[in-house]
Amino acid sequence: MDFQQVFGKPPETQASAPGRVNLLGEHTDYNDGFVLPTAIPQSTTVQLGLSSDSHHHFYSENLNEQVSILDINHSPSGFASYIFGCIEVLQKAGYKIPSLCVYVKSSVPMGSGLSSSAALEVATLRALRQLLNLPIDDVEIAQFAQQAEIHYAGVQCGIMDQMASSLADTEHILFLDTRTLKRRVMPLPDNAEILVIDSGVPRTLATSGYNQRRAECEEAARSLGVKALRDITDVEVTEKLPEPLRRRARHVVTEDNRVLEVLQGVTSERFGELMNASHASLRDDYEVSVPPLDTLVELLQKTPGVFGARLTGAGFGGASVALVVAGEARSIATYVLEQYKQAGYNGQILVPSLELSDAA
Ligand code: GLA
Hints:
This protein is of the alpha+beta class. It has helices at residues 3-7, 79-92, 116-132, 138-152, 160-167, 206-224, 245-263, 268-284, 291-301, 329-342, 354-359; strands spanning 13-22, 34-35, 37-50, 56-60, 65-69, 100-106, 172-177, 183-187, 192-198, 306-311, 319-325, 348-351.
């Protein structure tokens, strides 16, 4: 079913936004720290038209599901919550949004830690900007999108995903200082490409675990007398904290330092070592990995042609990201997925995208 078939008329405008994969700097953004994401080829497209009644109507092609907002005081759940959230944050900022018909289709994998929600939010806001000529720039789009996620999807997230979806492309890495929003577009490391494999383990407890980690970091920062953990550069300082705050803070401080090292310019080999160290820190100090993801990452790390590998996104399941020798991602994925299968799990290659390149 396309827009016309669902709503009985063609859309007035449409916009797209990509998912993202984070190469380094995990769980640092809500600590005012540093991140290194890049956009992935998969994206979400949102088509908009005006509604002929006084209600919003949202349709998801992927889910084949329609949601009508009959009472704006009652937030919807699922995919509709993100769209509704975007409309509401714009209204609260003083923009008047008419009743809309919204059609969504997406090739961004859901639940793998590749920011399908940020892609939906940014695509929705871009389409609204176009339809209504809103005077908002790409950074403000990311900020509105983050507010939608926090207040309408219940995740106390940082701003990395929305900034990446709004500002990154697939050919570069976006270095972002999440406190100042200063950024630098960097080339991918030499002779390297990105391989993303889904662990096949759905992200469970992600929202509660995520919000809990964030609260722990805020408590650690308070105990150390700083505004945010970004303000600690010497990891020794975290030693005086009680557990588990000590390990949580140690992850954030070392992870920020790893990103800053990349910013100085490193070889692909060193970049890979930093990714490996990041995974160990996320597994042991931050405790957001799960055994299948550890198995997948270990298999990747010991495969020739892999510079480094780690879990990506919030963790608690989802995908791994690896930096591999250019041109070898697919053969490495086939090899690793076979061994992953022998270990009893079923993974899937997500980037390079088989689907998108077959269609091309
Ligand atoms: C999720 C959040 C981001 C970030 C990552 C972890 O993707 O939405 O803001 O915190 O987890 O790095």
